[in-house]
Amino acid sequence: MAARSDGIDGMEPWALREYAFLGDGERGALISPRGELVWLCAPRWDSDAVFSQLIGGAGHYTVRPADNWQVSGGFYENGTLVRVSRWVTSQAVLITREALALPSDPERLVLLRQVSVERAPSSGAGVRLVLDPRPGFGHSAPGGWQRSEQWAGPDDAAPVWTASGGGLRVRWCGAPEAGPDADGALRGAFTLREGERRDLVLEIATERAASTGSLEPRGLWEETRRRWRQTVPDCDSLLAPRDARQAYAVLHGLTSGAGGMVAAATTSLPEHAGEGRNYDYRYAWLRDQSYAGIAVAAHGPHPLLDSACDFVTARVLEDGDALRPAYTVTGEPVPAGRSLGLPGYPGGSDRVGNQAGRQFQLDTFGEVLQLYAAAARHGHLENRDVRRAADVAVTAVERNWQRPEAGLWELEERWWTHSRLSVVTGLRALAAQLPGRAAERPRALAEAVLAETRARCLRPDGAWARAADDPKVDAGLLLPLARGCLAGDDPSTARTVAAVERELAEDGYVYRFRHDGRPLAEAEGAFLLCGFMMSLVSHHLGDRPAAYRWFERNRAAYGPPALYAEEFDVEQRQLRGNLPQAFVHALLLENAVRLAG
Q1: How far apart are CA 207 and CA 263, in angstroms?
Q2: 51 with 131: CB under 8 angstroms?
Q3: Would you tell me which of 36, 223, 323, 564 could form a disulfide with 10, CB atoms 3.0–4.6 Å apart?
Q4: In this structure, what is the dihedral angle of CA atoms 586, 515, 579, 106, given to the nearest 10 degrees?
Q5: Cα separation of 331 and 327, whole Å?
Q6: DSSP readout, 100-154?
């Protein structure tokens, strides 16, 4: 672990692989190994951040041992986003537990932090804390703190600190020793003896929130754990069962009660330092949510499948041909990108909003159709709205499949091969779930799209080119091939897989495509999504040893909290890009299901 300063203001960023994630579906927080909560948007995913030190803004919430001679390690309680950390100092051992409370409320968040002492000298173990909320990405501060003598709950005799600012109300209990400093932060310290415990409960709510609710910690902890047990299914029959359950937990933590699943909890974290590829992923991409729904459907009729189908269906019925690739989690348009005037995470930027929300991406329809086909095995096509949305999607493909579009990687508009193979896969999968004559239309359309794509995009060597005007290979092609786009005896599948492995794979990891003449690792990190695609397509081809090798290699590409980002720097063994990245966890889950079978 890198050496750190002994200040408590958490100004120095950590490598991305070190951050843990807390999520409740409506928002998410990142916490460093030193107990510094440095990222949290409130009240919702795409709201302004209240704690934004991660990208160079102000505001943090730190709880950690007072003894600076310390090391810490942690884990998640199995199948939850309850984070447990064990701190070993020069004289004591402390345990911290942290979680966003469930059930979640889009207008109100409750953050639970608990400190207990496993071992300490007779004088006890000291704990230091700072609460410094700064709404508006650090551009505003709450009004003066008031200490209220109203109790947090019937079993908690701790008074409550309250403040308002930036359209938010803040309440904090469990720290009667704290007090405001000259800059408006609450600072304090306390001592616990061996066997003692202290609960800290932070509430941040909108001014319009109907009620603030109880801050009594015991009930909040019990209900949060009960909800996690209820939500995350047993995965003992799957490959890597603990990681599979953790993937479920992460996906649930990223999925709003309104149905939308954000691509990641953060914005502007760098994919490659100084390259300018720094994006806001706090929105719901229909493609990514379809990946998650397909993975869950392979396992069983679990709640995340319902969320995916409901959210995607509403968007398809509302927008039809004009379907956007991404929306807010409530189904609104994604705002255009803008700068916040902050330094950004080192090598990254400070952008919010995303231009992809205005693109046309044909493959989105293909993934939506694959989602409906996968969900049909659990009765979802019997739903009138889902069936109607499937028809709308087929019509949209009929009208638009010849159009140049931005494609999977959201690049310039071209005739991308992956997009056409994706819709072929979706049309064929849907046709297989429809009765009699209802299947004829999607099946015939699939044949027409495939015939034209084969004529325009199949290379002379029998492998698929990435676009009609670009003969290079693209790892994104692996996924439609893995999902049965082509007949089992079609040689172009194996030839494309071989070309990807030869041209885009190094050291067990897969890169998207070649940007230029530089070595692969100099242009960007390995794409973990593509590594898991390679595992799936190897399994599809019957090469189970290769499938397991690809799966295990890419499954290992995380830091101590076992979270995946979009990219992995193979040389430095570092995470790159926003985190946790939903579609990587979705493909890990799908692999864990299919390889176990």
Answers
A1: 28
A2: no
A3: 36
A4: -80
A5: 5
A6: E-SS-BTTEEEEEEEEEEEE--TT-EEEEEEEE--TTTTT------EEE-S-SBT
- Token pair, residue 448, equals 């027409």
| Whole-angstrom distance, CA of residue 203 vs CA of residue 223 | 16
Q: Hey, which bits of 13-69 come out as E strands? A: 20-23, 28-31, 36-41, 49-51, 60-65
- pLDDT digit string (tens) for the chain, length 597 residues: 333 333 455 468 999 999 999 999 999 999 999 999 999 999 999 999 999 999 999 999 999 999 999 999 999 999 999 999 999 999 999 999 999 999 999 999 999 999 999 999 999 999 999 999 999 999 888 888 999 876 555 555 568 999 999 999 999 999 999 999 999 999 999 999 999 999 999 999 998 885 678 899 999 999 999 999 999 999 999 999 999 999 999 999 999 999 999 999 999 999 876 666 679 999 999 999 999 999 999 999 999 999 999 999 999 999 999 999 999 999 999 999 999 999 999 999 899 999 999 999 999 999 999 999 999 999 999 999 999 999 999 999 999 999 999 999 999 999 999 999 999 999 999 999 999 999 999 999 999 999 999 999 999 999 999 999 999 999 999 999 999 999 989 999 999 999 999 999 999 999 999 999 999 999 999 999 999 999 999 999 999 999 999 999 999 999 999 999 999 999 999 999 999 999 999 999 999 999 998
Q: What are the b/e assignments for 208-226, b being 16+ CB within 10 Å?
A: ebeeebbbbbeebbeebee
Cβ neighbours around 1 below 10 Å, total: 12
Reported as half-sphere exposure (CB side, CA atoms, 13 A), residue 461 has a value of 12
What residue spans of 401-527 are helical by DSSP H? 417-433, 440-457, 478-482, 491-504, 520-523
Assigned token pair, 577: 């890009």
